[in-house]
Design brief:
By secondary structure, the protein is an alpha/beta fold. It has four domains: 87 residues, no CATH class; 65 residues, no CATH class; 171 residues, Rossmann fold (3-Layer(aba) Sandwich); 188 residues, 3-Layer(aba) Sandwich (Rossmann fold), CATH 3.40.50.300. The chain is 36% helix and 19% strand. A seven-stranded parallel beta sheet has the order 12-13-11-14-15-10-16, sandwiched between helices.
Length: 583
């Protein structure tokens, strides 16, 4: 048996991979492993990844071969690779594309070279309701309207479908991109953005046209969307998270392309325009008067001959939009996100209905090239006050988190951080409105929540961008698709329990490249030895996978002697010299 104690992987037969952090090969090994395995736990010294069918299928769809995965595990493994691991990787990767959805004479068919697999599908009661007649030993007819439903059913059976049935071209809409923006700045797609566009487009063949592009916030997902639109030259429907995001899409479209403003429609609660390029929100699409009522705005999906539908922040796609997406599989679909993690566990539905992951790039790689800011991630732990310990001990599990998250001792820490960063653009982000109102009053800073009218929100965002406002307190409404390019400090005081995608989005608020010192500071203030700390550890999983390390510090060091502690940054002086790792 081979044995190399210098390597960072221990690969186990249960498909877990233990990755040693304090290893000179850690970063290059992690970047490879993250392409085909999912991070489960990330304590200080050993990170645990798991190889799953979906992680393998996404890797295969993005072009990674089974042999490359096996070679990576062998190259970085301390011990000989368990035989079942290599065999399972080969078997699962081979499943992607084993069943194909094809079109012949305007009719759809499930096809496989494996006669027995088609036989198994034909005799599966859960799938029979989605298919038509058996036309040969290797193929089954599929009604057009069941295209998405049959793909959903088959991935649950363990066989992802490679959809080669093609797409309707949609109504033609020709436009060109600018090489100088409307604001007079030079413009072109960056190399990785071009690669993402070309990978999705796939030369216009049926091999492309649906799938997800994964890029960090600040890396230009909107620009990738525009690049795909330029390739296809068709009428496009764009789905986004809120009115602010809708208007940012519209601004970017008009600034970076020669599409006239009157050809771009806003379809929101405030305006109902349907134009060749239309931008809407998930919220308006899923609106209905009662739980039993119809969704009146679903008609937008068929109101024009869309050739492309873009799902911004696809990890937030509501269940109702999944349902309508299952019925419009003949249209090209592009998902954009910073993370494929969904809190509802519906990653398989994203794979089936939007498409597999087509392109991603490690965040740290973009950081090294200065396309996004270098981020210092810091966790500051505070004690639970003595007078709250009995209340916390007796509380229900869900209530425990709120008690710990709203810990009043966090206020002094926030005040100290804001003072330390008084020359920076600071976002204070939290979950609970009462807590945010107190912090807003403490700091004398404006507060944005869901109750603040859109016009007032946009005014405050504009003043923050211009530097007239240095500190902005925001609720979860600012998690997504809010363009605040000069924000370089984020202080998280409470979050959506253990939401990994929320942590990624919140860090993303401050990752846009900065003039001068291209550094961003992210602080999570958590209550020690409580549910708050447990959830914070889970939220940090995604960022750990991307290569970020959380420096941990005690709140007394923040409030006390700033000069007596170890400097956490390497190779440069940190603005936060009190940071140290707490054992």
């Amino acid at each position: 048996m081979s044995y190399n104690p210098q390597n960072p992987f221990i690969v186990q037969s249960d498909k877990t991979v233990l990755l040693e952090v304090a290893n000179s090969l850690y970063e290059e090994a992690r970047d490879l492993l993250a392409r085909f395995a999912e991070l489960e736990k990330s304590p200080e010294h050993i990170h645990t990844y798991r190889i799953t069918p979906l992680s393998l299928w996404n890797a295969a769809a993005s072009g990674m071969k089974a042999e490359d995965m096996i070679t990576a595990l062998e190259k970085y493994g301390k011990f000989e690779l368990p035989q079942n691991i290599s065999q399972d990787i080969l078997d699962y990767v081979e499943r992607y594309g084993k069943i194909k959805l094809i079109k012949e004479d305007e009719e759809l068919f499930l096809y496989s070279d494996d006669f027995y697999l088609i036989e198994e599908i034909w005799n599966n009661k859960g799938i029979r309701s989605f298919v038509g007649e058996r036309v040969s030993k290797n193929s089954i007819k599929v009604p057009q309207y069941q295209r998405g439903h049959v793909k959903q059913a088959l991935i649950k059976m363990g066989f992802p479908v490679e959809d080669l049935a093609g797409y309707v071209p949609g109504a033609r809409f020709e436009f060109a991109m600018r090489d100088v923006t409307g604001l007079g700045l030079p413009f072109s797609l960056r190399d990785y953005q071009k690669e993402a566009v070309e990978t999705f487009y796939a030369g216009g063949s049926f091999k492309g046209g649906s799938g997800v592009i994964v890029l960090p916030c600040g890396a230009g997902k909107t620009i990738v969307g525009l690049g795909v639109m330029e390739k296809l030259q068709c009428e496009t429907l764009i789905l986004s998270t809120n009115i602010t995001a809708v208007r940012q899409w519209i601004d970017e479209i008009c600034d970076k392309s020669f599409i006239p403003r009157d050809a771009v429609g806003e379809y929101t609660g405030e305006l109902k325009e349907v134009k060749p390029i239309t931008v809407t929100t998930y919220q308006i699409l899923t609106y209905r008067k009662s739980k039993e009522g119809n969704f009146p705005h679903f008609a937008l999906f068929n109101s024009k001959d869309w050739g492309l539908i873009i799902y911004d922040e696809v990890h937030l796609l509501p269940a109702e939009v999944f349902r309508i997406t299952a019925e419009i599989q003949a249209r090209r679909r592009l998902g954009l996100t910073a993370t494929l993690v969904r809190e509802d566990g519906r990653e398989e539905d994203v794979f089936s209905l939007i498409g597999p992951k087509r392109f991603d790039i490690p965040w740290k790689e973009l950081e090294r090239k200065d396309w996004i800011a270098t981020a210092e991630c810091n966790e500051i732990r505070v004690d639970l006050p003595e007078d709250l310990r009995m209340e916390y001990a007796m509380a229900e599990l869900r209530d425990k988190y709120r008690i710990a998250a709203e810990n009043r001792l966090k206020f002094d820490v926030i005040n100290a951080l804001v003072e330390r960063h008084k020359d920076d653009q600071v976002l204070v982000i939290g979950q609970y409105i009462n807590q945010l109102e107190k912090i807003s009053e403490l700091l004398g800073a404006p507060l944005i929540t869901g109750k603040v009218p859109n016009r007032e929100r946009e005014k405050l965002y504009k003043e923050f961008r211009s530097g007239d406002i240095k500190v902005l307190v925001v609720s979860k409404v600012a998690n997504f698709a809010v363009d605040l390019p000069d924000a370089n400090v984020a202080i998280e005081i409470s979050g959506s329990f253990g939401s990994r995608q929320e942590e990624a989005q919140r860090l993303g608020r401050i990752l846009r490249p900065k003039k001068g010192e291209n550094i961003a500071y992210f602080y999570a203030v958590v209550t020690r030895d409580t549910r708050d700390q447990e959830f914070a550890a889970n939220r940090q999983l995604f960022l750990t996978e991307q290569g970020y390390k959380y420096h941990i510090s005690d709140y007394k060091d923040v409030l006390g002697d700033f000069n007596s502690q170890e400097v956490a940054s390497v190779g440069r002086e940190s603005k936060v010299p009190w940071l140290r790792v707490v054992k």
